[in-house]
Write a structure and sequence with these properties.
By secondary structure, this protein is α/β, with parallel strands linked by helices. Helices cover 41% and strands 19% of the residues. The chain has a 5-stranded parallel beta sheet, with helices on both faces. Helix 2 links the parallel strand 2 and strand 3. The longest helix is centred in the middle third of the chain and has 17 residues. The protein is globular, with a radius of gyration of 15 Å. It starts with a strand and ends with a helix. It binds 4'-phosphopantetheine. The site of 4'-phosphopantetheine has 9 residues, from strand 1 and helix 4.
Length: 160
């Protein structure tokens, strides 16, 4: 069984993330969207909220599991029996850091490789941070996030 992990902060999950997932889901028997629980960061959405929002946005897709992890992603991959990490690339500048992470992960566990998927051009400028900034000022983010995430954002910022 070919298993992959799609790790990230997903604070929140965007249509760019969904686009990446849709394009890799056919390649693997199972893909786990793994939300990083990072105690050093103060996210907008709790891990449980992020998981629920991702589940809602991906419920129409088969072979997708949503989970969270703490610590090293390669350790989590080992527990899940996965040897591939999936990461999206929006622009060339993303590649620099992503390549470093891929090399580090490969160093930490030589069984784990990284697959990079270029984001579709319409989402190349979309990031969770930008979406939060727009939503926090009451701007519309309909084009960039699943509808459940849009509602959740407006509720967080009380601009319902
Ligand atoms: O959505 P993000 O914030 O770009 O995702 C980054 C993430 C979660 C993939 C990365 O920070 C990560 O894997 N963190 C877990 C800790 C770890 O394994 N670090 C070593 C990777 S070089």
């Amino acid at each position: 069984m070919k298993r992959a992990i799609y790790p990230g902060s997903f604070d929140p999950f965007t249509l760019g993330h969904l686009d990446i997932l849709q394009r890799v889901v056919g390649i693997f028997d199972e893909i786990t969207v793994a939300v990083l629980h990072n105690p050093n960061k103060k996210p907008l959405f709790t891990v449980a909220e992020r998981i629920d929002l991702i589940k809602e946005a991906t419920e129409h897709m088969g072979h997708v599991v949503v989970d969270s992890f703490e610590g090293l992603v390669v350790d989590y991959a080992k527990i899940k029996g996965a040897t591939t990490l999936v990461r999206g690339l929006r622009e060339v500048s993303d590649f620099e850091n992503e390549l470093k992470m891929a090399h580090m992960n490969r160093h930490l566990d030589s069984d784990v490789g990284t697959v990079f998927i270029p984001t579709s051009p319409e989402y190349s400028f979309v990031s969770s941070s930008l979406v939060k900034e727009v939503a926090s000022h009451g701007g519309r983010v309909t084009a960039f996030v699943p509808s459940g995430v849009e509602q959740a954002l407006y509720q967080k910022y009380q601009k319902v």
